[in-house]
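A common beginner's mistake is to predict each chain separately and then try to dock the pieces by hand. The better habit, illustrated here, is to supply every component at once so that their relative placement is modeled jointly.
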Amino acid sequence: MDDHVTLDHGSGGGKTARLINELILPLIDQGKDGSENALCDGAVLDIPRGDEEGKLVFTTDSFVVDPLFFPGGDIGKLSVCGTVNDLAVMGARPLYLSLSFIIEEGLPLEDLRRIAGSVGETASRAGIRIVTGDTKVVERGRGDGIYINTSGIGVTALDLKPENIVPGDCVIVSGTVGDHGSAVMLSRNPELGIMSDGIGAQLLSDCAPVHREALSLAEGLGKDLRVMRDPTRGGLATTLNEFVEGRKDAGIEIIEKDIPISETVNGICDILGLDPLYCACEGRIVLVTAKEAAGKALEILKKCPGGQNAAIIGHVTEDLPGALIVRTPLGTGRIAAKLSGSQLPRIC
Amino acid sequence: MDDHVTLDHGSGGGKTARLINELILPLIDQGKDGSENALCDGAVLDIPRGDEEGKLVFTTDSFVVDPLFFPGGDIGKLSVCGTVNDLAVMGARPLYLSLSFIIEEGLPLEDLRRIAGSVGETASRAGIRIVTGDTKVVERGRGDGIYINTSGIGVTALDLKPENIVPGDCVIVSGTVGDHGSAVMLSRNPELGIMSDGIGAQLLSDCAPVHREALSLAEGLGKDLRVMRDPTRGGLATTLNEFVEGRKDAGIEIIEKDIPISETVNGICDILGLDPLYCACEGRIVLVTAKEAAGKALEILKKCPGGQNAAIIGHVTEDLPGALIVRTPLGTGRIAAKLSGSQLPRIC
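With all components supplied together, the output reads:
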């Protein structure tokens, strides 16, 4: 086998078949009886039969993160977490995943092997079955190593949505924010020399599946859980804006000092000129609960591995409807709008 | 709004929101009551409740066709047809489609509008609902205008697969082969000067949804329908090889003169040095039926719009198990292996 991906690997012929047989097919879960044929044009799957109120959740994401490998993860891990988490925050049990590669000619096969390995490992950890896939190859200079699309199917009986939010509700995050965004940005700037020997050495992306936390919250809180989201592109501030955007009766106020941000992320954001509130997370949940359920939500999160930094960071208010207000340690408030420029391109 | 896509359009902030609001959201079918929120991380959908034997079909494809616009279609139309057809040939009713764009910085917004328009029009024609989406932007020189991933969900009660094939069965195609592949290759070679004024002027991609034909065949033939496939990458010859690959008891023999190929495609393949049997189709079905059902299959296909060229092109034989034999007009046979090189990169 060659050392690098060539255009022949994407033409649909024998080389494509060999690439798929070696690297992709081992990732595809063909079902217990092997009757589901991954080489067909699609996967044939059992229809999830939940209770009468069960709904299908369907989501898609393309991943173009640069660089492909970053502290704490790589594009393979990210592309499984991203879609698993989109399902999870809808309150859905993740069931089936599709996996589509757009590979740039010249990608070292060794890199592809590592990425495929991460995909498999993360899917297995998240308990989602990769059931169908596709591989394309584009010429050198028409891509950037590899882009990955995953689409996911899950089932839920919940109806979590921003419209459920009412004034008085509490806002909670499941851990420190901004780790993924700042880790990726840092690894794009090796010339800063803080990667390996400075504060950067401690920084890892938070990239991880959050389905366990999300399902525990959904089960534990019932109707008191209003909405969950994973604050990826645009970070915490953009997600919270989306929760109340256009609302005439509700805004969100968060208390700056209560937002869990690691010292490392704070330091690196200072150096890079970033605001951690706009830095992507890839293994965190931001959620809104009824006021009386916030303590229980925190308790559930703190019991989950890595949940020690979960915190109540604010509440839903009638004061400035439709807006996100950040209350500073001095007691003043500033409006934090949605991200509008390109603070962090290609972060996921 | 700008004239071209910029990196800011992909950062997850305000510009992304405006792009999505103008171009993507109108494509998303939010359900009759509007309760399905396209801006959530995923779509919440009714679980298809078929009969007890119903199965979910799930498929994915990324489209990297070059050029983006070709005679008879564009990447938008192609990306809907490709996935709809993958569902259709599994005997599935197409239900839900996801739509993910990876856009290169600098793509004219006018091109994006045309492509989005094609996506919407084709989905509507195919009766499939686009329910969720994603948009990423990569820097100039890291993509090629636009790449599109679509994933599709359908339901089927059938179990069509190559293993169903037995010696004596008939092989049928639903129309002329090689139109898509040769149209795309021709539009990549405008210097040949045969595009607009020569034979090329008559050449159009066959790109079209085939769900109606596929469902009519499935309903009309029952168990006599063994397997269907849309012969895309690698063309008819590669698909037929896949039908019998590894079989110890069955090969396929096709009669060269019975294969419907337009004179234009034959002429252009001669000029470009291509073999039409390996040229992709994007609106054709190749199917295997029980011998006694072949006439009925042909009748069904000929009744469908554009089905006048449907033809029985060969049969399943015990002669050369695992192989595809092409019988020439001289009566000799040649083995046609799977495509192994890159005859046609980036054809879909």
